[in-house]
Model the fold of this input.
Amino acid sequence: VSDFDSLQIDLFSRYKIDKIIFGNEELKYRREANSVFVKFPSTQKRGINSKITVTYSGRPPAVKNPEWEGGFTWRKDIKGRDWVGVACESTGASIWWPCKDHVSDEPDSASMHFTVPSDLVCVSNGKLIDTTNHSNNTTTWNWKVTYPINIYNITLNLAHYSHFSDNYLSGNENLSLDYYVLDYNLPHAKLQFQQVKTMMACYEKYFGRYPFWRDGYKLVETPYWGMEHQSAISYGNEYINNKEGFDFIIIHESAHEWWGNNVSANDKAGLWLHESFATYSEALFVECTKSYDDAVEYLVSQRWQIRDSFAIIGTRGINYDAIKVDNDLYFKGAWMLHTFRSVLNNDSLFFKILKGLQSEFALRTISELDVINYANKVSEKDYSAFFHQYLNYTQPPVLEYKIKQRGKNALLTYRWKSDVLNFLMPVEVRSEYKNEFGKVTEKFIRLDATNDFKTVTIPNFDSKNFDVNESRFYVKMNKL
Done:
């Protein structure tokens, strides 16, 4: 974006750099921890296309917990054969190859060439272009991604894979669905992966068409639980459905093709854009295949995992480690989105915002402000305080209240206690009461609440059973 004569690339210090070549010239460089600063012989002009070649060697790290650490997983399948994968979201792609290791920017495409033992199948992102067999019993596999990609999403899988394929029809166009599974798991996979087309239809309904159409969609069996590698979703859930009847890894990790891969956070402090939306997508899948009430039941079953111990958004500009807020990135973030849906109280508007975010910011890296400003624009109302409270503070808003029974009616005094000033948010409160025939039923009242106390009389309302409608709002309560 500007003229320069030195360039930073990233490569972990465990690797030895032999040389860096630019044209016919070997460049000088210096190391500083895991960064490499390369000096060019002349000023490189903004907008030109050039190439440097880095020759390096070393042993990549092996990890025990690949979803939350970065590096290679070296395993054996049940027949004792090599089974290799790599995942590096938390640590960064520079743990295994030299790159510009920051989520604020993405290359517009990527070509990957892997030379591996010929008895192994090599699967990476995008489309397989071709393979070349060599006399030393190795094969080069050439893969190509034709869209922008988070570089931590670039991956490598080696195993004795069997491949089968299918198609998903959208309008008059077919999306290729490719599956690479351990050869002895082929019957399980052909049954389990039938969920994919249902998932595609649901997510297309809510978010728009699959965003990487040219590159296709893949599920690849891996020796770890799962990861959202673009157009090559890593799958390691052992073909198990949850009690709702779907495979969590397929549904969650595939949601990242929209939330995380198409629309991407431009700083690791903002990974809620990936995880909160993907977790809420699970509930939307339940809603799509069953009902809204089933989706709420699914969300309620996850609610106990919210910790409220850290803000969802971390400190920007420091390569923030989001592992410590892992639960809240997923479950509190999902409940924030569900609460926002309840605040809007207009599903057409809510889903217009979701689908609009996918089209407005397609193949881009963005921040939370882009999301908030877009939601405000489409809804024609300012919800900045809402998102600020849920994203930047550890606690949700607290409904402080006093309630007294006056015959059949209740006298309620209430307000929001919040970290954000001038906080305005509607909320639903509920109570159980008996009608004149003795039948017990629920009554819901929607209230507009601010930081200032208000008092209302609610007719036919039992104060003993007063509560917030917890099926629609994630807030806390404090009886004064």
Notes: The CA atoms of residues 71 and 274 lie 21 Å apart.
